[in-house]
Design goal:
It is a single chain. With about 250 residues, the protein is of the alpha/beta class. It folds into two domains: about 170 residues, P-loop containing nucleotide triphosphate hydrolases (Rossmann fold, 3-Layer(aba) Sandwich), CATH 3.40.50; about 60 residues, no CATH class. Helix content is about 35%, strand content about 25%. It has nine helices and ten strands. It has a six-stranded mixed beta sheet, with helices on both faces. The chain has a four-stranded antiparallel beta sheet with strand order 2-1-4-5, with helices on one face. A hairpin with a 2-residue loop joins strand 4 and strand 5.
């Protein structure tokens, strides 16, 4: 069943056409990746999906309801964790619940119950500056999950991490998605990351600054159980997926 449908979305800034007739579907429970080179319009599309900008044309449907131009419908996590330095971890992650009107004590208690699942045991009363980069990203993901447990937009959430931490975060992220039944759309320009994490990869091509608005060049489905993804990266099947994605990118 379709959770999110991007239907014929076009967008631009002044005379520059950035997106042209973008079609994309994320099924309920899927992790979908939007993959493309820097500057091709991925973040612009995310701004449209998040309701931060209204498209020139097209619709953004969440559970069949058009949410185009309506901010606050989906959790949107940026590359930087954006944790508030003057708040403890429990107050950072419970902030979306407080902003929605839940009493602070109840919001903290609800968030506290999820710290273990998100690998944040013992951090409730610590400050963001006391955590590693990986732990801060876990906290940011929990905050996003508490904003919207059904669908998360993740804009290169692991790109700032070192290779070892990133590998651990990939495995942990897939476990959380599987356990929580969350649907996610993830932006990345890392092909290996896309194949490791995604059920479906949408490849975006374009160079808006050169007069070539971005389009979806095609998609690649990855049929590998999430529990087997760590070993999957060492298989010929992984390399075949990667080759087909490179073909879609024109590389």
């Amino acid at each position: 069943m379709a959770k999110l449908v991007i239907d014929g979305v076009s967008q631009g800034f002044g005379p520059v056409d950035v997106l042209e007739d973008i079609d994309l579907v994320v099924e309920s429970g899927q992790v979908a990746c939007l993959l493309g080179p820097s500057g091709c319009g991925k973040t612009t599309l995310f701004h449209v999906v998040a309701g931060l900008a209204s498209p020139r044309a097209g619709r953004v449907l969440l559970d069949g309801r058009d949410i185009a131009g309506q901010p606050g419908q989906l959790a949107y996590m940026l590359q930087k964790d954006l944790l508030l330095p003057h708040k403890t971890i429990i107050d950072n992650v419970s902030l979306p619940l407080v902003l929605k009107g839940e009493p602070t004590a109840a919001a903290r208690e609800r968030a506290r119950g999820l710290l273990g699942l998100f690998g944040l045991e013992g951090t409730a009363d610590r400050w963001p500056a006391e955590l590693s980069g990986g732990m801060r990203q876990r906290a940011a993901l929990l905050r996003s999950y508490l904003f919207s447990s059904e669908f998360m937009l993740l804009d290169e959430p692991f790109s700032a991490l070192d290779a070892f931490t990133k590998a651990d975060m990939h495995a942990w992220f897939l476990d959380v998605v599987e356990t929580c039944g969350t649907t996610a759309l993830l932006v990345t320009h890392d092909i290996d990351e896309a194949v490791k994490l995604a059920d479906v990869i949408y490849v975006m091509r374009g160079a808006p600054q050169q007069g070539e608005p971005a389009r979806i060049a095609g998609s690649e489905r990855v049929a590998c159980p999430r529990a087997e993804r760590a070993e999957f990266a060492l298989t010929p099947a992984f390399l075949e997926h990667k080759r087909r994605v490179l073909d879609l990118l024109g590389r």
